[in-house]
Amino acid sequence: MAFAIGIALNLGFVAVEAFYGWRINSLALLADAGHNLSDVAGLVLAWGGALAGKLRPDARHTYGWQRASILAAFFNALLLLVAMGALAWEAVGRLGTPEATQGWTIMAVAGVGIVVNTATALLFMRGAHGDLNIRGAFLHMAADALVSLGVVVGGALVLWQGWLWIDPVMSLAIAVVIVVGTWDLFKQSLHLLFDGVPDRVDLPAVRQVLLALPGVTEVHDLHVWAMGTSRTALTAHLVLADAAVDTGTVLAKAEHELHEHFDIAHVTLQLEPPSHAAHCALRGEHGCGFEPA
């Protein structure tokens, strides 16, 4: 429901902003309208990713479609970066030949943008902490509210000082703000696409927790990756001290500790007696898992 409301609000605002930007020849309004349109596309992507991530696993996709949320976050960030590059190019071209705009109209339209973008951002605030996909939607809307505030300030300066160059300069400032805010999302989503360890997981600490389990003497072939933007998986081989170790206790404690300290719920562990561990096909294999230096 939050996505549907956010998309409807922003589509309506894009139409209003684009119309008045064209009517008064304001690059700042047209640029912000284009940016908000890309945010609508981003919200659609994020919504699609969230829906796909809820599809049940089957025989062909045993993890389901959870990675769709990572793809949505990545393309969301990429879309914004491309849009801001085009905006910056146009703004630089206009710096040499600034054109007159209507300050009061700019301020009024951008003021509506502050309300719309703030309301949309609030819809995603609750889920922004634990889900990169939702965080992307929240950051875009929160940044848009700040950008609209900047456009209001620009309109006021046009009225006060008559500075025609403020419109392309404000457009460049908008581009910089959005690129800075989006770059981290782009890097994180790209990192997760290549099975990188999520930022919230301290891998050496995970190893120490596993080594501290009763009866465990060694950990190897340790992998941690994101199944989606809100779920993390782990696999590891645990070498047991001897055959007398209670494997049920080891597994139960491992699952509890990993969930409690690292929010890792999807855990797969292979328990190995020393005789097997010495000849494990994966042990020491290059690239098969994290090994401490």
Write structural notes for this entry.
- With 293 residues, the protein is mainly alpha-helical.
- The chain folds into two domains: 2-193, Alpha-lytic protease prodomain-like; 203-277, Alpha-Beta Plaits (2-Layer Sandwich), CATH 3.30.70.1350.
- 64% of the residues lie in helices and 9% in strands.
- The protein has helices spanning 2-24, 27-53, 68-95, 103-124, 132-161, 166-193, 203-211, 247-262, 274-277; strands at 216-226, 232-240, 266-272.
- The chain has a three-stranded mixed β-sheet with strand order 1-2-3.
- Strand 2, helix 8 (247-262) and strand 3 (266-272) form a beta-alpha-beta unit.
- Helix 5 packs antiparallel against helix 6.
- The two termini are 48 Å apart.
- The relative contact order is 0.11.
- The model has no long low-confidence stretch (mean pLDDT 79).
Strand content bin? 5-15%
Here the CATH topology of the largest domain equals Alpha-lytic protease prodomain-like
Order of helices and strands: HHHHHHHEEHEH
CATH architecture of the largest domain: Up-down Bundle
Tally of separate domains: 2
Helix content: 55-70%
- Morphology call: elongated
What would you report as the Rg, rounded to the nearest angstrom? 25 Å
In DSSP terms (H or I, runs of 4 or more residues), the helix count works out at 9
CATH class of the largest domain: Mainly Alpha
Oligomeric state, counting identical vs distinct chains: single chain
Q: Which spans of ≥5 residues are poorly predicted at pLDDT below 50?
A: none
- Write down the overall mean pLDDT: 79
Q: Please tally the β strands and state the result.
A: 3
